[in-house]
Amino acid sequence: MAKDEQPSKIRAHLKKHLVLVGLMGAGKSAIGRRVATAIGARFLDADREIELAAGMKIPDIFDSRGEAEFRDGERRVIARLLDEAPHVLATGGGAFIDDETRRLLAEKATTVWMRADLDVLVKRCGRRSNRPLLKNGNPREILGKLMDVRYPVYAEANIEVYSRDEPHEIAVNEIIGQLKRRGDLVLT
Length: 188
Fold this sequence. Notes:
Blueprint: E1 12-14, E2 17-21, H1 28-39, E3 43-45, H2 46-54, H3 58-81, E4 88-90, H4 99-108, E5 109-115, H5 118-125, H6 139-154, E6 159-162, H7 168-182, E7 185-187
Parallel strand pairs: 2-4, 2-5, 3-4, 5-6
Antiparallel strand pairs: 1-7
Helix pairs in contact: 1-7, 2-3, 5-6
């Protein structure tokens, strides 16, 4: 199976939300979208939903309103999304760091930490220029510092999956397998 191919669909439903957390570049959106397709669930990207709610792109929110106001909006959008029927949700890298958001996710979701090594993150983040936290400084140093601060918090997620430079279906199948073992994915 090629990197962009999807695993075959299974008939299943989520007992509660499946939320992917981790640093920028860890593959939360790419893997989350594929997991949703594989299990026939709806996929949402929190960053996209924040942009829709704010009527502007995330870098513009950071520039005009600052990170604190962005995080407040992010918290509200995620809370709203968790009031919907269970779906797969990819969050921004800082969402899970917020105590209130993390508490809400613990109540309403199964969380998956997409863990990646620094080299993988630097390579992937280098492909995009719209990362507000990487605008002012050396991306490797910034990501390394973020790892030091955020990885201990991400470790509170229910499931940990390594995101490597390998076909996406490997991580997708690992997530689905762990969901089945936990009883969070019900085959129909």
